[in-house]
């Protein structure tokens, strides 16, 4: 009986050991799976929240701006166009190389072609393409990806739905035909042009806004989603781990929102400069000036909200990813 009991116990122990080994291998595989699950869930949460920026904009801000824009009569739109021309002349900005195009059906192809050539000949593009030579596959690829983008935005302007200032070597304001479409943004776009052409600090902001946003968001996402340490990792003394990646992860929301600061500040300065010029240029049309200021203020508010949503998206990405990983770690602890 004793022998049999001993063999039974031995067999049980072997089974337990085998299970423990199996459990440990499974645990590693499952932890990896759980981590990947966390990364996928975190990424999805990030996309869902980030995608609310255009939704919020089209629900809250665009209707208000559209309503203000629709209240402008053709005569008032003409007043804005003429006042803008005078303001441009007074500011001597054309001597700095600024182009102003009123996009119409007749000139849209010419405008698009001209802007594409300016982009291809800009210092920034030349810096990247010079190593590959004239008419290289790389240069054709850059041109091929830029031109359709320019055509899309020019079409928006031609239809009176938008107005733009293009920096980075293009130095161009695109507006709808005189007296038509969204003319209320004209002075705000001139504000962007002043930022780019006259002040080095605002020029740096203007030129860096896209890069800051892309790199800021990428840094947060990569650090938050690929962090090798376990969720809420602690060192041997029980203190939370330190280091650049851990810092980025802990402050993901703030950093992502801050990556939009150059954009938001530059937008705010462009609005203030545009308002200042409009105050002088439209002094005989106070109600029109009021509408323009209100429209520009709503436009600026949309950037603040976009900044907050971007921060919230990064914050939730990290939280969701950690939560899924942490749940699994707790499950493992309770089994052991
Ligand atoms: Zn703007």
Structure in a nutshell:
With 336 residues, this protein is mostly helical.
Helix-strand layout with pairing:
Elements: H1 2-50, H2 52-70, H3 74-91, E1 99-103, H4 108-120, H5 123-129, H6 137-158, E2 164-166, E3 172-176, H7 186-198, H8 200-226, H9 244-250, H10 252-258, H11 261-281, H12 286-335
Parallel strand pairs: 1-3
Antiparallel strand pairs: 2-3
The structure holds zinc ion (ZN).
Zinc ion (ZN) is lined by residues 188, 192, 267, 270.
Explain how this protein is built:
The protein has one domain. It is 75% helix and 4% strand. β2 and β3 form a beta hairpin. The structure holds zinc ion (ZN). The site of zinc ion (ZN) has 4 residues, from α7 and α11.
What's the story with the biggest beta sheet? 3 strands, mixed
Pattern of helices and strands: HHHEHHHEEHHHHHH
| Quaternary structure type | single chain
Classify the secondary structure makeup into a structural class. mainly alpha
Globular, elongated, flat, extended or rod-shaped: what is the shape? elongated
Q: Stretches where pLDDT falls below 50 for ≥5 residues?
A: 1-21
Q: What average pLDDT do the residues reach?
A: 83
- Rg for CA atoms: 28 Å
